[in-house]
Amino acid sequence: MSDFLGGLINLDLMARYGPRFLDGVLVTLQLVGISFILGGLLAVPVALARLSKSSVLRTLAYSYVYFFRGTPLLAQVFLVYYGAGQLRDAFEAVGLWTFFRDAWFCALLTFTLNTAAYQAEILRGGIQAVPGGQNEAAFALGLPRWLAFVKVVLPQALVTALRPLGNELILMIKASAIVSLITIYDVMGVTRLAFSRSFDFQVYLWAAALYLILVEGVRRLWAVAERRLTRHLKPA
Amino acid sequence: MTYYLDLLSFGPDGWGDELAQGALITIALAVLTLPFGLMLGLFVALGQRSGSRIARNVAVVFTTVFRGLPELLTLFIVYYGGQLLLQKLASAVGYTAQIQVNSFLAGFVALGLVLAAFSSEVWVGALNAIPNGQREAARALGLSARLSFRLVVLPQLVRVALPGLGNNWLVLLKDTSLVSTIALADLMRQTNIAVGSTKEPLFFYFVACLVYLFFSMLSGGALGWLEARTSRGQVRRPA
């Protein structure tokens, strides 16, 4: 068995880089997990601004969304990571340099801003799909505007948004591979390191298997969560 | 201000011409990849709906893999793996010189595979949206299976699939920036070079973003026109 495996998988290489690959998986999951949640929080005010009566707010939110959806994530990451270095004096003056000096935080910030733009559009669709009567009924019951939004509109909007949000999460996992280009050792970063030292092409195939497992795992987990969260909508 | 304008000027001191060349390569790569990826995607979609079990399985594996892998990883696998494969093939026939895979070609193949995987989902949805009666009617009129697909199904397919394919195009346009990592002199790489030599990352990456935005905007306009044109035969029903 080990002979057979040894023919397909370079076991020495696996012993040397296996643990690093696991670290890489953790880095990828952390980066994507944190930025996805922070982005989700930021997406709520952006989506509301997109739907606001004030044309100033609407234009600002639209420009934000258009910029982050219309440009490559790679360019955004470079803009923040390398651009921050140019603003070093300013950041030192306000005490933010330790944050921007770190590639990990730069990636986290860029990813959060990027996914917030996509999630805001998903959320906006969800909010618009909630019938206006829901809002009116909440007002008639005497709920203040913000409470009507938090308790009545938002939960229903999130149900509609659940599936596209799952797709966005998977796209983020895949897109996160580019942080390997700014010195972060995520799955892709570890892969590049292992390849540059061993010149053994199979590390790229390991990475492919890891990403497929990650993506498929998240997809299934999300499907379970979706079934559970929408079980009140199923006919008995 | 004039300092920054000088940075963008054409000629030996400015980076305007280099960036423009890069933008041209970006556009060329995206435009050439588009038909390849869309055609392959259509074949995969037809495979997914085919009666043959093997074809269905191949199509499902294809879409699962290329939708699940990071685009950057697909690109590296095609680039380095292709090099390895060619090297092995060449040494098998006794040719021993170093083989270098063209990075434009690697980008074309990798992005095309990704586009095929994503567009096949759009194609499948559109194929499902066309009533079977259309095909049957075409066959009843004596058109061959091939002709009824080309003359009856395909024109309707394009109209239904266009919004989804438009999104695929916008994603492709942004994904081309990844080829800068395998040394293709696209807009992103030229920007990297300009940053390396001028130490003006904020300015140049912002300019690059604006160029990508400009292409997105142009595409948006073109897609709107195309959608209007392909649905000009549709009767507008009163709401």
From TrEMBL, chain A:
The segment(s) forming the ABC transmembrane type-1 domain are 25-222
What is its membrane topology? Multi-pass membrane protein
The protein's matches in InterPro entries, at most eight in alphabetical order, are given as: AA_ABC_transptr_permease_3TM, ArtM/GltK/GlnP/TcyL/YhdX-like, MetI-like, MetI-like_sf
Molecular function GO terms recorded: transmembrane transporter activity
Q: What is its main location?
A: membrane
**Any idea what this protein is called?**
Polar amino acid transport system permease protein
Please state which protein family the record places this protein in. Answer: Belongs to the binding-protein-dependent transport system permease family. HisMQ subfamily.
Q: Which GO terms describe its cellular component?
A: ATP-binding cassette (ABC) transporter complex
Record bears the keyword GTP-binding = no
Question: Pfam families, from UniProt?
Answer: BPD_transp_1
Q: Which GO terms describe its biological process?
A: amino acid transport
Alphabetically sorted, this entry's keywords are: Cell inner membrane, Cell membrane, Membrane, Transmembrane, Transmembrane helix, Transport
Automatic annotation (TrEMBL), chain B:
Q: Which residues form the ABC transmembrane type-1 domain?
A: 23-219
Q: Where in the cell is it found?
A: Cell inner membrane; Cell membrane
Q: Name one GO molecular function term.
A: transmembrane transporter activity
Q: Which PROSITE patterns match?
A: ABC_TM1
Matching entries from CDD domains are given as:
TM_PBP2 (cd06261)
**Similarity section:** Belongs to the binding-protein-dependent transport system permease family. HisMQ subfamily.
List residues traversing the bilayer. Answer: 20-46, 58-81, 101-126, 147-166, 202-226
Name of the featured protein: Polar amino acid transport system permease protein
Instruction: Provide the Gene Ontology terms for cellular component.
Output: ATP-binding cassette (ABC) transporter complex
Please provide the record's keywords in A-Z order: Cell inner membrane, Cell membrane, Membrane, Transmembrane, Transmembrane helix, Transport
Topological category with respect to the lipid bilayer: Multi-pass membrane protein
